[in-house]
Amino acid sequence: MKTVLFDLDDTLFDHRHSSRVALAALRQTNLSLQSKPLLEIEEGYHTLLEQLHKKVLLGEITGKEALHERFLRLFRLHGEKLSKSKVEEIALTYRETYKVARRPVRGALQLLERLKKEVKIGIVSNNILEEQLLKLHYLRMDRFVDELVVSEEVGAAKPDPKIFEIALRRLGGDPDRSVMVGDSYETDIRGAQAAGIKTVWLNRRCLANPDGDSVMEIGAFEPLEEVAEKILSTVS
Fold first, then answer.
1. What was the pLDDT predicted at 198?
2. Which residues are within 8 A (CB) of 190 and not within 5 positions of it... i.e. 6 or more apart?
3. Using the 8-state DSSP alphabet, how is residue 61 labeled?
4. pLDDT at 151
């Protein structure tokens, strides 16, 4: 059977939206951030997120420790040294606001429902298993997903081809009849290619395609039938 693999964060789940809403709430209540454009704060935060998330994946620090360290560094960049209690307060505000703002990427639920009629669906994610399970349940995506493969659980992280191979093995899939859809060119696209899997790059931010026309690219999950056909055509 044909298999479609998806990344989760910023592919099916709109992580950047939730993060932006949470950072905007922090900016409103903290003087050291109020003079800075939200975009500048957001870019700095996501740079720190990527740096510290690698340590979480390697088991060097916990997710909670990484969250606290992100805010220590972020506020330090803007001239404020946070106390331990203030870091905990800010981290709690961020997490609670982030949770309330959770939403799917536009068109993602409809696309999953459409594809589920014809393929098996797996998610391949660099994250913590419990956190990703909660997201899928909250977004009501779990009903469409046959397998969730998370780096914490399997001991391999994208772009390592091993995590894709594990996903296909669980799904009973074949690389020649599978496709990976993801927003990160380095981890999702190059990783899947290394495992012999066809790819579709979700490029919602209109970035330059590193490989030109050799990789199929979409900018959104709408219009539904057009996008579904593009994805399905890669594994026909």
1. 96
2. 159
3. S
4. 95
Q: What is the largest CA-CA distance in the chain?
A: 57
**Stated length of the chain:** 236
Q: In what order do the strands lie in the sheet with 3-6?
A: 147-150, 120-125, 3-6, 178-182, 198-202, 216-218
Average pLDDT, the chain: 95
- Asked if 92 and 110 sit in the same domain, the reply is no
CATH code of 51's domain: 1.10.150
Residue 220: domain span: 3-14+103-233
Alpha carbon distance 119, 8 (integer Å): 18
**Phi, psi of 198, deg, nearest 5:** -65, 160
Domains contained in the chain, number: 2
Q: What is the pLDDT of residues 190-232, one digit of tens each?
A: 999 999 999 999 999 999 988 877 899 999 999 999 999 999 9
Output the pTM of the full model.
Answer: 0.94
